Amino acid sequence: MGHKLKIAGWVSIGVVAGALTTVSLQTVARGAMTPLPLEEIQQLSAVFGLVKTDYVEPVDDKKLITDAISGMVASLDPHSQYFDKKSFKEFREGTSGRFVGVGIEITQEDGLIKIVSPIEGSPAFRAGLKTNDLITKIDETAVKGLSLNDAVKKMRGEPNTKVTLTIFRKEESRTFPVTITREEIKTQSVKGKLIEPGYGWVRLSQFQERTVDDFVRKIEEIYKQDPHLKGLVLDLRNDPGGLLDAAVAISAAFLPENVTVVSTNGQLAESKATYKAAPEFYQRRGSGDPLKRLPAALKTVPLIVLVNEGSASASEIVAGALQDHKRATIMGSQTFGKGSVQTVRPLGPDTGLKLTTARYYTPSGKSIQAKGIVPDVMIDESEEGNVFAALRMREADLDKHLGSGQGDEPKDEGREKAREEARKRLEEEAKKPVAERKIPEFGSDKDFQLTQALNQFKGRPVLVSKTLTERKEEKKEN
Hints:
By secondary structure, the chain is of the alpha+beta class. Helix content is 26%, strand content 24%.
């Protein structure tokens, strides 16, 4: 979710042991000399030595050190991560939109792996895996206790090999195995069509290296079918994010030139930045401006952006920019709230560190982190309502999540009560036939939220949510 790739040069790491007891260490942090906590480093060295000598069986030095680094970084927040050789390769493949696996976006919940969303058209998508499904086992390995990185490793593999995932589906109160054949995931991040004369729909499922070019081609197709669009729906529902430059480019496609799209702020001077709707902020080296081919009418066509709890990071940047500049009406439900910048720094030829280095802010200065984007018009998922909204996970629910930096709201005491009521409704819903509970496919003629967007364009009544309200940020307990 929202990876900002930077090449920071090679960082040299030395293993320090016995000399720690006699040498006063200093570390250089961007030119500032900061003394290392000698006593704690000595304890780390002592624990390393005891494990080596006293543990029941020999332990590999490299594994001990790698696990120590992974644990240190994972304790910071849910998005910082140490990459070993294999995971670093997989991460770089993922941002390019090509990798071998099952095709799911995941996070952790209560020690289990939770599916944020299956990637459309992937083996997991075809196997029927759903948002909020919990993975309890990968082949014969229990997920409880596995790091997110280790779980990803076990699900990745060679093309045409099989992996069996044991799934717990809360809404059906059942556990079942699903065997999936791994394949190269060539994610198509852009879909779109002319819904009816005068109205277009473009869906972005992720922000990848090819997203901007694919978006431009799709817009060209739609305008070729109907050069006189009366309205366009930009669908960012369940879009987990991706590359920052792609988010800036998509925003720039609709905004006046040079207006602010997003800003960042962190400890380092390089983390204090403002990104504008101009080619130098999204154009890749050696290539021209990909937005030049877009029809001029795109700058003024009436625009609605659809979002939900699965809209995160880069998709929140786009929604926030279009909302603050009053370029679009945002409809749906409050977004995930992943408003932090992850910088990837290589540690050598094939390892790296993904570290949270800044927070994202909308053009008006609002922090996205742990708050998200609140729609202008709250819309349920279906005509019957959105009774399970209280059960949905957002950034603020994640363990060790980073606060907004703009003051935490008091804890919402009514949230657990709402969750308990939603759980009871869920039990009743689970008794219905599966066909009656399935949310229609995005972009279909039964897509309730898309229908409401069209009503908004046409000046017809819009069925506003009776259950969704803005969720305030909960105060973190230390």
